[in-house]
Amino acid sequence: MIENRSTPLAFEPARIANTNLNIQQNAKGILLMIISMVAFALADTLVKVTTSVASSAQIMFFLIGGGLILFGLIAKFQGNNLIDKNAFTPILLLRYVSEITGMIGMVIALSKVPLATVGAITQATPLLVVIGAVLSLKEKVSWRRWSAISFGFIGVLLIVQPGTNEFDSSVLWAILAMIALSIRDLTTRLTPPDMASTSLATFTMIATIPFPIVWILYNGESFFPTTVNWWLVSLMIVLGSTGYMLLITSIRMAEVSVVTPFRYTRILFLLILGIIVFDERPDTFVIAGAALIIVSGVYMMWREQQIKKAEVRKAA
Questions:
Q1: What would the pLDDT profile of 232-244 be if each residue is shown by its tens digit?
Q2: Residue 55 belongs to what domain range?
Q3: Secondary structure class of 123 (helix, strand, coil)
């Protein structure tokens, strides 16, 4: 009996150390996630500013071309493989298509729709990812999470207001971005685990860069218009790429269920920037809809964490 009691105690310091390490990693992950959302919100703001002097095709060319250079250099510096036959697997080809589709929807939406509205709609992406996981990965979702998803989409309807005089068809671009980015996030879970994040990002940029090039040529536009403020464009590219890398680092460093709710801080930052930079005044429906999306998403992550804890206790 004495031996049975003392055995767990022998591992108690190691268990406490691991717990403290997880807490520290989660805290760092949360901080990186928040900084990532600040970077994305600032990049979105600069995209919206740039849409007044450049077309959607040109802005996409700037973002993808700049990202290709930055991610390629980082991948090379880290010694990651940039020649991989897995880059052309069907699941990655689907990811590339969803990435370019999401970017089209996002850039056009930012040129026509208030910042906070675009941010709130696109932050419903995790809700669609869960539905996609149920349909394609056969994951099981409880009625509580289905309820959260339903409330989240009620929030989207409050923002879009279909069938009313307040309905603006331009928000459909934001919905297109939400759907495409959901597919991208879902396919990311199916990518080869041994493929480095910077390599994946570089492959994505290489696969998507032809689209804005063809679009610009078709429109007869310049690849480097003189009306553009290149300092702002450079900052836009750096902020977007930085946000992307910090997002990946945060998710890999900490528990996903802990850091994911902090993705919704992007809505708050976009709301503030929209008011300061563009003098936007979101109405009650937008605020209420955004609140529903945030509460639904946070509850879903919390519920998932509770289920995992229950499974661990059951296994023990």
A1: 999 999 998 888 8
A2: 25-141+168-283
A3: coil
